[in-house]
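Could someone model magnesium ion with this protein?
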Amino acid sequence: MRKIETQIIKIEHPLSDQQLMTAAQALRAGELVAFPTETVYGLGANALDPQAVASIFHAKGRPADNPLIVHVAEPEGIDELILEPSEIARLLLEAFAPGPLTLVLPRSTKVSDVITAGLDTVAVRIPAHETARRLISLAGVPVAAPSANRSGKPSPTRAWHVFEDLDGLIPYIIDDGPCEYGLESTVLDLTGSKPVILRPGAVTAAQIMERTGIEVADSTEAMGESDVPKAPGMKYRHYAPEARVWIAAGTDYAARAEAISNYLNQLSEEGSADLRIGLFTSGMTRKLIDCRYYEYKSYGKMTAEFIETRPIWPARNLVYIDYADRPDPASAAGKLFTALRRFDQIGAEIIIAEGLPTEGMGNAYMNRLNKAAGGGKPAGGR
Ligand code: TXA
Ligand code: MG
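Reply:
Sure, complex below.
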């Protein structure tokens, strides 16, 4: 693909339409714009322009059989995209829109096959992020957008993640800082007899029940290796870093720290102590780890500067990233993808990550972490 110059549009707050005008016009005109949402950064194209949508797949290196989510600024924007009004969708949107919830519904003829990969359904979402909504409103068109990573990389939660993956491949990246949640939206399929969560996210089955009384099944909780997932994207191996990922299980942080101590000691006894290890835990958990064989090095602040300084990794070093002081799934979720990217970049061979209870954001966190631990190299797109 011909290399193009990638321009970064840094947002200053308070946000003004002026700052987004160039990007909105570019979107309208069929160009690609990466933009922040409250979940992860998206790679947007005018959803009504099949050629623009096709260029998303090129830039990402994404398989064409993996459909895209269409983003709109207001609930009314969904009407033209779906076959007929849905009462259950209306209730869900009332309770959760704008926000990190994507609904899969029967599609209208306005939605092209390029977006849906030929399915007769379409995924729609109203992002809560102010910059995303203003951009979509200004563009005046629905915006098809997958996560703005190259296929095979974790979703970007910072603008510089997008830059790492797509510099030279897309014309615009809107930089508005880190994403609030750091994991992709909940995908809820409304086309069957009962709503089913195809991908867990910040909106949980329990919250849906509590706020709307609607019962939903979580297909991702019980899904075995052999089951065929209904969200085409879930069949690809996701978030699998180069390193082997080992998840520390335990009912509390002390138990998890003990499990990590045992694992580290076992590695050194096995003669594997020279492996480069990345550790992703809470600070409290890390401080309880009892293994003197390694020298602990802090990753420091998760800033872009780190990319420039890539240290040579001396043997017996363990580089850690604390997601927060205390164990907390929301913080862990917010930093997981940054940590996976960084550990890969600095050549970690083993990543030790703290497992957390699957309540609230913990369910989505463990879903992504388990995928990362799935082993092997990515088999395709995401
Ligand atoms: O938070 C998010 O959802 C982000 C931001 C940018 O909105 N987007 C995102 O898109 O994660 P993407 O393309 O990386 O993931 C979309 C997921 C994929 O697993 C895809 O297979 C599924 O949604 N999906 C899209 N359309 C679908 C459909 N019609 N039926 C079933 N699953 C669908
Ligand atoms: Mg993705």
